[in-house]
Amino acid sequence: MKDDTKIVTAGRDPESNHGIVNPPVYHASTVLHPTLADWDASRETRARGERGIFYGRWGTPTTFALEDAVSAIEGGHRCMLYSSGLGAIAGALLAFLKAGDHVLMTDSVYGPARAFCNNVLSRYGVTTTFYDPLLGADVAELLRPETRIVYTEAPGSQTFEMQDIPAIAEVAHRHGAVVMMDNTWASPLYFKPFEHGVDVSIQAGTKYIVGHSDVMIGTATATREAWPQLEETSRQLGQAAGPDDVYLAQRGLRTLGVRLERHWQTGLKLAEWMLAQAEVECVMHPALPDDPGHALWQRDFLGASGLFGVTLTPRPREAVAALIDSLSLFGLGASWGGFESLVLASSPNTMRDARPWPYEGPTLRFHAGLEDPDDLIEDLEHGFAQLRKAS
Ligand SMILES: *Cc1c(COP(=O)(O)O)cnc(C)c1O
Hints:
Blueprint: H1 3-9, H2 36-47, H3 61-74, E1 78-82, H4 85-96, E2 102-106, H5 111-119, E3 127-131, E4 147-153, H6 165-174, E5 178-182, H7 187-190, E6 200-204, E7 218-222, H8 227-236, H9 243-253, H10 256-275, E8 280-284, H11 294-300, E9 307-312, H12 317-326, E10 331-332, E11 342-346, E12 363-367, H13 373-390
Parallel strand pairs: 2-3, 2-4, 4-5, 5-6, 10-11
Antiparallel strand pairs: 1-7, 6-7, 8-9, 9-12, 11-12
Helix pairs in contact: 1-3, 3-9, 4-8, 12-13
């Protein structure tokens, strides 16, 4: 079955739900068992690692529908839901670590994941080394006997470096380490992590899966081998996602294919427009032919989403404010992946250990929404005029 068919069918079973197209939203904590024997049997089912309906935190048909859909599309064995994308990152990391372990984490990682390593894992005796995202198989030189996880994110969601995931995974596996990836940029549709050696793939479902800027949710999908360990600790951490949020995420997923195609096209159009502006020093978008990550993107990815970055030639903060504040179609705010366009001023230079940020000028991140691209470009033309005036 092709992906566009899978996103419509996976995790849905109208026949077992009165013919109703979408899965029911179960609000549940207590699940009543008719007899003590039934209660005992359900405990045994859970002990065998099998799915069942025992108690709200362990999932309901609502939860299972989204889990099954995400794991079917991403291509993993099973999927665990979390209350946010960062919750999924923290849960997945904790599931595989113990005191004394070492994590290799890409220097281009999502900022709060960096903070989790530096501020939380460090308190539990886990050390983290941030590695140059452009290292492929050469991460081998940074592996230590106690390295347990090699964590990747491609492209980085602030600075858009591509990573050679298969090369990194091969080296990590030879060493006995687990390979994790934050696959939010590409979504489950445009990068297939399990075909490229990833063991645990994380999605901030908040972004493209939900697609409407109204829900926080995270997913971690694992291979058959990695699944038991991921599940056990995540359950013990008390991770669960709310039923209405789970429902909205599965609802968003059904239209992911058509939405992403439009985000991709519009994002590329905006990125190409940016290339022609004298004030723009660099456009960071792996689908652009001159991007340093283009060959990897072409080799491994099936498409691009609508998120990309630009650096401007050096200029004062007030000039950047003049640009951002004059935009009317690009909202200023965290997150991305919704139907609307966004802009954010980022500071990659403050979040680097392994690979110093080479640009002095301001960095901006754009999310191309589903508006008409010509309207977006007109808005940008107006904004850049204000930037010029204020520079
Ligand atoms: C937003 C984001 C996250 C975190 O997701 P939340 O749902 O906001 O916690 C993780 N990784 C990437 C790449 C993100 O953009």
